[in-house]
Amino acid sequence: MIGDDDFNPRGNAAMQLLEMMNEIVNLGLLGWLIVKTNKKQKALVMLAWVSTALSIIQPAVEGFRWQMVPTYLITVFVWLNLLRRSFPAGERKPQTKRVRMTLGLLAAIYALIMLLLPITMPVFTFPRPTGSYAVGTITYDWTDPNREETYTEASYDRRELMVQVWYPAKENSGGSVAPYLPAGFRSELSREFGLPEFVLSYLDQVKTNSIIQAPLFDAEASYPVVLFSASNGGIRFQNTFQVEELASRGYIVVGIEHTYHTIATVFSDGHVTGFQRMNLLDFSVMGRAVNQVLVKDAQFVLDQVGRLNVNDPSGRFTGKIDMNRIGMMGHSLGGAVTAQMVLHDGRIKAGINMDGTMFGDEIPESGLNKPFMLMSSASSAAAETEEPNARDLAKYGMTRERFDKITGESLRRKNNALAGGGYLFTLGHTVHYSYSDFYLYSPLVRWIDGTKPWTAHRMINEYTVAFFDRYLKGMPSPLLDSPVNDSKYPELTFVRK
């Protein structure tokens, strides 16, 4: 069922405006042909011209996509029908009731397909960021000459990372709007999901709010930094809803794509690396990956950011990055990386873990001794208390004893990380990937999982900004101190440990 969240005025609608108009007109045409076959055709001709105009203007303005082909075909069919009527009809037998019912049923099925294709694969939009700055973005391809790539056999391979930066820009600074998907990524995404590539072509038309290589706005002497670490199998731009909001509020956000821990990484020269799958239930294996690879990725990227601040060849960031005000956030495995960076790297002043298991080195029982927030999904919170059934245990190949051990270890690490004043943010109607853009891709996935992405994203952003405003900018953040307003946030539990 379509709910209010699917038509949030701050974000996505099921279809683009001209698409929606075209759908409505062509539904009317389809109904006319079935119900009023023998009526005067003046209004039918007028609607046919409107449909024709929309079928030309809509793809020219909003972009052609295959999901609209059934709609365009109705326009063609109507004109063929009108052309047929212009010739002498001769003697025609009236349609029987059974024929009319069959045609009506077929028309209803066709109309359903025509509506569902663009609705279930929408060219969604991101809400306009609420901050006072426009958003610019630039992408870097950085290689660490001092680190061997451990996921390949060639000893001369060095660790190479794709990094995307979002930053405050001046309004109306010109430039092209950044697409959501980078060039070459759609084919890798379709291969991972096991879908024909054309099925996901609609994602090529999704735009962000960011301007490619816009000039940095010099409204402030320098800006604080927030590193973002993507999830296991995730991508650097998977939290566009969040990084654009932070950039609009005066932060330089640096998104790290951990090579071989993403669905795929498409580098600037076009070569692609795949996904190194790991046992996410093995704390020792995942801990080594976090501390020996991913934390070092983050530290290297932070070093590179420091170099940009000293001497950016483009001049954009030189002297504009405040290396004394650095925070970090990450989703899932990236959340574990964030916790370890908070623990081990003195440059990180505050961190947010979004629904990530605390893989890595043990966290002291006294806590991280730095500002830290754990954003938990409702499904993760439930897993800590609910008894597993036999089907779930079989799915993951676990005994009850092993399940209890893993759950207990995860909960113990979480409690350690929150000790001494950590914040725990738990949001209803959320699952693990609610802390990403994933549920914007199609209403089908959010209907199946019962999520409300626009509501969740708004609340996540409010608390993310409040947290970093307090601990990186030293600004008052009443949201962190006030009791949750049940009328505004009925699905949120927010406590300080």
Keywords:
497 residues; alpha/beta
Question: What general form does the structure show?
Answer: globular
How do the strands line up in the largest sheet?
A: 3-4-1-2-6-5-9-10-11-12-13
Beta-strand content bin: 15-25%
- Please report the total strand number as a whole number: 13
Percent of residues in helices comes to: 40-55%
The N- and C-terminal alpha carbons lie at a distance of: 38 Å
Largest sheet: 11 strands, mixed
Residue windows where pLDDT falls under 50 for at least 5 positions: 6-11
Report the structural category.
alpha/beta
Number of helices: 14
Rounded to the nearest angstrom, the radius of gyration is 26 Å
* SSE sequence, one letter per element: HHHHEEEHEEHEEEHEHEEHHHEHHHE
The average pLDDT is 87
